[in-house]
């Protein structure tokens, strides 16, 4: 009888420990994957840029899709609340050249954000989350000389830092306790790049009438490792 009781208690402890291990919240997790930013509002005023740079009408255009990457580290305080640090990078510039225009500068944007994350953890393989991240964004482009139908336009290397915030969420699909796939993450992504100041620095002439904020959507997907 004593042996039976001991065996029963031991089995109960083992089962409880196993269940706890299965439901244990990871203290630290890391995400890495692909990221795409879609500009919704806040691109350059092309008519003003054409005029200020003394170019023909519609010499320039606006890009609105930027491909890149995103990595994130997250510390979980408990089952529901965590804090994340998010770093992302995307290539391309808002200003593009029309057919016949060459020498457009290359550019890139990096973001550094942090903030709280709320996660709904259950025994399900699907784990949804919401977050609010804020920080700063750094936009830069290289030097070049733009040539086309009108006079050449020299471009100086330019960098501009501004405030940025991402509000959104996503879904992780759990493959195992340590590994998950981030099926998708979608953020309302707001930046405050002052295009007048940015282009004045790049082109060395007075440029006015451009937006000072941008509204974007940011989509990310990739893998999640938990520790």
List keywords for this structure.
eight-stranded antiparallel barrel; 227 residues; Porin; two-stranded antiparallel ribbon; alpha+beta; elongated; 3 helices
List the secondary-structure elements in sequence, H or E.
HEHEEEEEEEEEEHE
Strand count: 12
Question: Which of globular, elongated, flat, extended, rod-shaped describes the shape?
Answer: elongated
CATH architectural type: Beta Barrel
Radius of gyration: 25 Å
How far the N terminus sits from the C terminus, by CA atoms, comes to 42 Å
- The total count of helices amounts to 3
Q: Which CATH first-tier class would you pick?
A: Mainly Beta
Q: How are the strands of the largest sheet arranged?
A: 1-3-4-6-7-10-11-12
The assigned structural class equals alpha+beta
Any idea how many domains?
Answer: 1
Task: Give the rounded overall mean pLDDT.
Answer: 90
Strand content: over 45%
What characterizes the major β-sheet? Answer: 8 strands, antiparallel, barrel
Question: What does this protein look like?
Answer:
It is a single chain. The protein has helices at 2-23, 46-52, 195-203, and strands at 28-41, 60-62, 65-76, 81-91, 95-97, 107-119, 126-141, 144-146, 153-155, 158-174, 179-191, 214-226. It has an 8-stranded antiparallel β-barrel. Strands 2-5 form a two-stranded antiparallel sheet. It has a two-stranded antiparallel ribbon with strand order 8-9. The model is unreliable at 4-22 (pLDDT under 50). The chain is built from 3 helices and 12 strands, in the order H-E-H-E-E-E-E-E-E-E-E-E-E-H-E. It has a single domain (26-226), classed as Porin. 17% of the residues lie in helices and 53% in strands. The two termini are 42 Å apart. The chain is α+β, with helices and mostly antiparallel strands.
């Amino acid at each position: 009888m004593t042996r039976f009781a001991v065996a029963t208690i031991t089995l109960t402890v083992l089962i409880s420990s196993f269940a706890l291990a299965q439901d244990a919240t990871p203290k630290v997790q890391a995400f890495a994957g692909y990221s795409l930013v879609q500009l919704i509002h806040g691109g350059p005023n092309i008519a003003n840029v054409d005029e200020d740079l003394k170019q023909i009408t519609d010499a320039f255009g606006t890009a609105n899709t930027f491909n890149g990457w995103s990595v994130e580290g997250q510390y979980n305080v408990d089952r529901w609340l965590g804090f994340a640090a998010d770093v992302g990078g995307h290539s391309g510039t808002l200003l593009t050249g029309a057919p016949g225009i060459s020498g457009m500068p290359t550019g890139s944007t990096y973001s550094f954000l942090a903030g709280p994350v709320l996660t709904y953890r259950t025994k399900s393989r699907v784990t949804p989350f919401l977050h609010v991240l804020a920080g700063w964004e750094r936009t830069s482009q290289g030097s070049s000389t733009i040539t086309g139908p009108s006079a050449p336009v020299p471009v100086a290397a330019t960098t501009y830092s501004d405030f940025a915030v991402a509000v959104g969420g996503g879904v992780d699909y759990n493959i195992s306790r340590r590994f998950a796939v981030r099926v998708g993450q979608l953020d309302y992504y707001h930046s405050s790049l002052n295009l007048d100041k940015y282009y004045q620095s790049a082109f060395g002439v007075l440029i006015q009438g451009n937006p000072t904020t941008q509204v974007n959507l940011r989509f990310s997907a990739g893998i999640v490792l938990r520790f």
